[in-house]
Design a protein that fits this description.
The protein is an alpha+beta fold and 912 residues long. It has 3 domains: 313 residues, Beta-galactosidase, Chain A, domain 5, CATH 2.70.98; 253 residues, no CATH class; 96 residues, Maltose phosphorylase, domain 3. The chain is 27% helix and 25% strand. It has 22 helices and 51 strands. The strands form 15 sheets. An 11-stranded antiparallel beta sheet has the order 1-2-8-9-10-11-22-17-14-13-19, with helices on one face. Helix 8 crosses helix 9 and helix 16 runs parallel beside helix 18. The two termini are 56 Å apart.
């Protein structure tokens, strides 16, 4: 059946609030509900979704996106209407499903805002309407709240008997198939005066058979806080023989519930249900009655009296909803935009929220994100910090510092991230793997921090290194290492070794320079940014990240020269082993020789075999900077000479990879064009692409990768499985990492174009992403950006994507030009005509130097980029003496330091 034409969602308020008619006519929609306390939920228009606080603690059954329409389990709320039968306020009944495409179907409306969700459902034939509002309260409570308002919309009085019915899974996701029934035998089910609680006796999962203390509950009260009439604590008894969760006997026959009983477990060894029967009520025409449902997870038996005292009434629900709305509004409005397109400005509020969601959910616990066991990967730690530097800058320094403790002395890093900041765990699956791009991201993120803050002293802070059984970038095992020895690198004297943050950064970028394959590009190893390129570990090479590392080396060289100027000291202390990698300081390596590079790297591995001597070498900063610049310039020249693909039809691009047979991946072949977007992005982001090559790259991208239906594809069609390159090519073309529009790389492409001065082209890229995401008829997603858009134009893997950080960063630093330069504020706007309002104004509110700044640009003349420059600046009404630089206007940190915090400071910028 083809899908019904669907009207788009509409923004309805100033803080991203939106509405959508008949949302249940679209599949795969879900909405996040979460708090800082660890409660992680998702909810659909029919109240499917899951409630969890972690991989091993699911209150409701774990699910994948297909379960949203296949599973009968949901947060159901039943209404038995005397003389008319059973109706689901959530839309989840066999009768309603049968009527779905008929005239008798319910009418529904979704209204949602910053982490609150409301669905209104009405059946005109039955004369009843239900409004169901859901949210997870801000704070530390692991709870989800739901309020249901039933209204008689008919002319005659109706008698209703409401029943909440929420399955209590109450265990680890590992038990969903493996020992599903056996683990139900562990259940100890309690009823109380307010609901049903389950505390399994043991937990069976990868951690072993342990005594379980975690408790799960569903509780309810009427609007004044009145206790329910009774309970249905056992799922099989609720549904009845031959019944189901979408047509349960207890509701259809309006069966009597079990009374609440405080004390020992009433039932043991069954699948539990948060089945709550409320008192029968007569509703006159137009009359309403409300009910509150509380779902909770606790580390021990739940204090039900305290929980219901806090949340268990309509007034308490409404009060906490207001608090929750304000909390998320304040969080998101840390950064806000005003352009000529209000809908786009509102849409950006949801993009701004997404990096926070990724921090809280990691890459798991939403329906499309059904992989992983929670937490974030190494790359995520650093890229998410890009947005946090703009939204939550007070925490960033400690986050960055703690993250560096995950670096190994061989330049690789830990891959298992613990729950606490700076906690890294040896690989629990004993699988050796290195992603070759991991060493590139920390410096890029740290450089942004240094530019925003001017905190060069951060580079000289000392941090530990990570150690486990893997060494030489997982090519060897350290048989002497035991888990009991801990995960910190030791010196020869047995003490924990610490090196400066700068030493960590140098190590991560120097080791890859020597870790090359047959074509003198850095080895691909387990994969790079594209995890799907995971089958070329022996001979594969990542040309694209060779460009990234080259740019890091170049930027590092400049930073060292600045460090010398700022600190006055001309020397630097590093572990003596690292001097081997700074070859030009003593024993130069021929960079054109693959074997010479590999031999030098092996010498380093031998010198630092999962330990160091602890002796430090004192080096001249200027000499180290020269060494890094020499390496960077060699990379740029090598790539321009050896990895450029000239097209016979005009244009050209960089080859991005070599496969495991040592073959160049990209170019014009007999089978067609082979080209990746990633291969162009990183040479453009830095200095590898020469000015003459940029227009040719743009031409080739537009011709070979741009598709009007889905945007900028991640790659062209390589024509089949590439077992010598990676699993990505086993995916159908146009899906995920094989030729879909992958938001992350698309936004980075746009960012690179802005950086290199191609502003109109960059705007086109960002505009395409917005237009595709906001076109609900095709994308079928709520406001925000997806991980990717498939060949049909559907947005996939919504909410949890690192691309949100990149879009936010691009809008702030490139489009609106609010940049740091080692602590000073640089204004370099790159706004195009379409981004100014009718009065020629565009503004941004953001944080900088610990201050809330509102920067308003007013075009006194042309609004076309390239035809205006900054004419004058005033700060809080006072004219600022302009300090012009090649990029724009610099406002020294000293001007900002004297401003009071806790208020918005206005910068008025005149463009002419």
């Amino acid at each position: 059946m083809t899908h019904t034409k669907q009207s788009n969602w509409q923004f309805t308020g100033p803080n991203g609030e939106f509405s959508l008619k008949q949302p249940d006519r679209s599949s795969f929609l879900y909405f996040p509900l979460v708090n800082e306390g660890g409660m992680m939920s998702s909810v659909t228009p029919q109240l499917h979704g899951q409630v969890t606080s972690g991989h091993n603690t699911f209150l409701t059954p774990p699910l994948s996106v297909e379960d949203l329409h296949n599973s009968r389990a949901s947060r159901n709320f039943w209404v038995y209407i005397d003389g008319k039968g059973a109706w689901s306020a959530a839309g989840n009944s066999a009768r309603q499903h049968a009527q779905y495409y008929s005239e008798g179907a319910d009418e529904s409306l979704l209204e949602a805002g910053l982490l609150w969700h409301k669905i209104t459902r009405e059946n005109k034939q039955l004369g009843i309407k239900a409004e169901i509002t859901s949210f997870v309260p801000a704070g530390s409570d692991k709870a989800e709240l739901m309020k249901v308002i039933l209204t008689n919309t008919g002319e005659e009085e109706i008698v209703v008997t409401p029943t909440a019915a929420i399955p209590l899974y109450a265990r680890s996701a590992d038990d969903l198939r493996d020992h599903r029934h056996v683990t139900s035998l562990l259940n100890r089910i309690y009823t109380s005066l307010y609901g049903v609680e389950v505390q399994p006796a043991l937990s069976f999962d990868e951690r072993g058979h342990r005594i379980n203390y975690t408790s799960y509950g569903v509780f309810g009260a009427e609007e004044e806080g009145t206790q329910p009439a009774g309970f249905f604590p056992v799922q099989e008894e609720f549904v009845g023989e031959g019944g189901s969760l979408d047509w349960p006997e207890a509701v259809v026959l309006n069966a009597e519930p079990q009374a609440g009983c405080v004390g020992e477990a009433q039932r043991q060894g069954y699948e539990a249900l948060g089945g709550i029967r409320f008192a029968t009520a007569a509703l006159k025409s137009g009359q309403s009655r409300s009910y509150v449902v509380v779902m909770a997870i606790a580390e021990e038996r739940i204090d039900i009296a305290a929980l219901m005292s806090k949340y268990g009434s309509a007034a308490a629900f409404d009060a906490h909803l207001d608090i929750n709305k304000q909390y998320w509004t304040d969080k998101v409005n840390t950064v806000s935009f005003h352009t000529g397109d209000n809908d786009r400005d509102q849409w950006m509020k949801w993009v701004t929220l997404q990096p926070v969601l990724r921090r809280l959910y990691g890459n798991s616990f939403l329906p499309y994100h059904d992989y992983g066991r929670g937490g974030r990967g190494w790359r995520d730690l650093w890229q998410d910090c890009l947005a946090l530097m703009i939204m939550e800058p007070e925490d960033v320094r400690s986050l960055l510092f703690n993250n560096y403790a995950g670096v190994r002395i061989d330049g690789s890093n830990a891959t298992i991230i613990g729950q606490q900041p700076g906690e890294f765990i040896a690989d629990r699956n004993n699988i050796p793997r290195v992603w070759m791009d991991h060493g590139a991201w920390p410096f890029m993120t740290t450089l942004l921090y240094l530019n925003q803050s001017g905190d060069l002293d951060f580079l000289l802070e000392e941090q530990t290194y990570f150690r486990d059984s893997f060494m030489s970038r997982c090519r060897e095992r350290d048989s002497s290492w035991e888990p009991a020895a801990g995960s910190s690198l030791l010196a020869d004297n047995g003490k924990i070794y610490k090196g400066t943050i700068l030493e960590h950064i140098l190590l991560q970028n120097l080791v890859p320079f020597f870790n090359v394959g047959g074509h003198n590009n850095i080895l691909l190893e387990g994969a790079d940014w594209n995890d799907g390129l995971d089958m070329a570990a022996q001979r594969g090479e990542s040309v694209t990240f060779t460009a990234f590392y080259g740019d890091n080396l170049y930027e590092l060289s400049g930073l060292l020269r600045t460090l010398k100027e700022r600190n006055g000291s001309g020397t630097l202390e590093l572990a003596e082993e690292l001097v081997l990698l700074l070859d030009s300081l003593g024993d130069p390596v021929d960079y054109a020789s693959v074997s010479a590079k590999q031999e030098r790297l092996n010498r380093y591995y031998a010198a630092a075999p999962n330990r160091v001597s602890g002796v430090r070498a004192e080096l001249e900063l200027e000499q180290v900077a020269d060494d890094l610049e020499r390496k960077a310039e060699w990379i740029f020249g090598h790539l321009r000479s050896n990895e450029w693909v000239s097209s016979q039809e005009g244009g050209g691009w960089f080859n991005g990879y070599y496969n495991n047979d040592g073959e160049r991946v990209e170019g014009e072949t007999a089978e067609g064009i082979r080209m990746t977007l990633t291969g162009q992005v990183f040479p453009l982001l830095g200095h590898a692409a020469s000015p003459e090559q940029i227009p040719q790259i743009i031409t080739s991208v537009e011709k070979n990768l741009h598709d009007a239906k889905i945007g900028y594809r991640l790659n062209s069609d390589f024509g089949g499985i590439q077992q010598n390159l990676g699993r990505a090519f086993g995916f159908a073309f146009g899906h995920k990492e094989n030729g879909a529009m992958f938001s992350h790389m698309t936004i980075m492409y746009g960012n690179a174009l802005y950086k290199r001065g191609y502003v109109q082209e960059g705007y086109k890229v960002l505009d395409s992403l917005y237009s595709l995401s906001a076109d609900f008829e095709s994308s079928r997603m709520y406001p925000g950006i997806p991980e990717y858009i498939n060949e049909q134009g559907r947005g996939m893997y919504t909410y949890l994507t690192g691309s949100a950080s990149w879009l936010l960063l691009t809008m702030v630093t490139e489009v609106f030009g609010i940049k740091g330069r080692l602590g000073d504020l640089l204004l370099e706007p790159k706004l195009v005509k379409e981004q100014f309002d009718y009065a020629g104004k565009a503004s941004i509110k953001t944080l900088f130097a610990g201050l809330e700044l509102e920067v308003a640009y007013t075009a006194a003349g042309s609004t076309e980029y390239g035809e205006y420059q900054i004419h004058g600046v005033s700060l809080n009404g006072a004219v600022v003496t302009l300090q012009r630089v090649s990029e724009g206007v610099l406002i020294p940190r000293t001007v900002l330091n004297g401003l009071p915090k806790g208020q918005v400071h206005k910068l008025e910028v005149i463009l002419n």
